[in-house]
Amino acid sequence: MSEIKIPIPTRPDIIWNLRHLVDVDSTNSYATDLAKMGLPEGQIILADHQSAGRGRLDRDWIDSPGSSVLMSILLRPKFPPQFFYLITAALSLAASQTLQSKFSVSCKLKWPNDVMVADKKICGILAEAAYGGVENAWVVAGIGLNCSQSRDELAGVGQGATSIFAESGIRLSEEGRVDLAQQLAAQFASLYISLGDSDRRIGLRGLYKSACDTIGKRVRVEMPGETLIGVASDISPEGNLLVETDSGTRAVPAGDVIHLRKGL
Ligand code: BTN
After folding, report:
1. Is 172 exposed, middle or buried (0-12, 13-18, 19+ CB in 10 A)?
2. CATH (one of 3.30.70.1450, 2.60.40.1120, 3.50.30.30, 2.30.30.100) for 214-259
């Protein structure tokens, strides 16, 4: 295990501290334990391998050691909890911006938590929150970013997937991966800080909307006990997906979205 402070100039009261582990069950579980122990926000857990990585909707997130950025960030937001969904938006934007600036890989965002390159998933986000009043709220924002998987390895993944190597031909060393994690964390940190200010929050929502491929698409949204079909028209100020259905506009805070072809 190694530990470094990342010099990210956000707020003087937040120290961004990266703990790099070789092996862990799940960086989200590890960061959740730190949250429950009362550690301050800004703790970043990075692992080379997870033995029990988790995706959304209780899915497994499987990696081979050293192939991905597997990272979770502990946050203690002071803004109202209805805006916590925007943390996922901020992390996906940060990933997309970092992939563009560092590797010239252009991404689109699929609401709520996927970063895509030409309809293939390069990165997924799992944000988990607990709210016990403003003083006791925490969010663990986890991200899994495919780095060095080859096209052959990715062909075995059910849903279309891609990686930095598959898209750019660049195979990151361990040092390169840690460096990428730090850049991604820094990019996210400045977007996260903007969520604390209502005007800047509107700006972030605008950025997310212009990067989001779901807007304007006909979609099927699967939620526990309900499926919606309609056209995704907008993102609400809280980060919900607005869907125009036959029975009116619905605001969806969370769900599994399938982009439908016209006519379906
Ligand atoms: C998804 O697309 O379903 C979300 C995947 C999130 C995976 C990351 S890897 C780092 C962090 N730790 C976990 O156990 N999950 C997230």
Report:
1. buried
2. 2.30.30.100
CATH topology of domain 2-210: BirA Bifunctional Protein; domain 2 (3.30.930)
CB distance 112 to ligand 1 below 6 Å: no
75 within ligand 1 shell (Cβ under 6 A) = no
**Domain limits, CATH 3.30.930.10, in the chain:** 2-210
pLDDT tens by residue, 157-212:
766 999 999 999 999 999 999 999 999 999 999 999 999 999 999 999 999 999 99
Which ligand 1 atom lies nearest to the CA of residue 27? 12
Residue 248 Cα to ligand 1 middle (Å): 33
Ligand 1 contacts CB of residue 53 (under 6 A): yes
Q: What is the pTM of this model?
A: 0.95
Q: Is the CB of 146 under 6 A from ligand 1?
A: no
- Residues 36-87: pLDDT tens digits? 999 999 999 999 999 999 999 889 999 999 999 999 999 999 999 999 999 9
- Residue 199 phi, psi (nearest 5): -70, -45
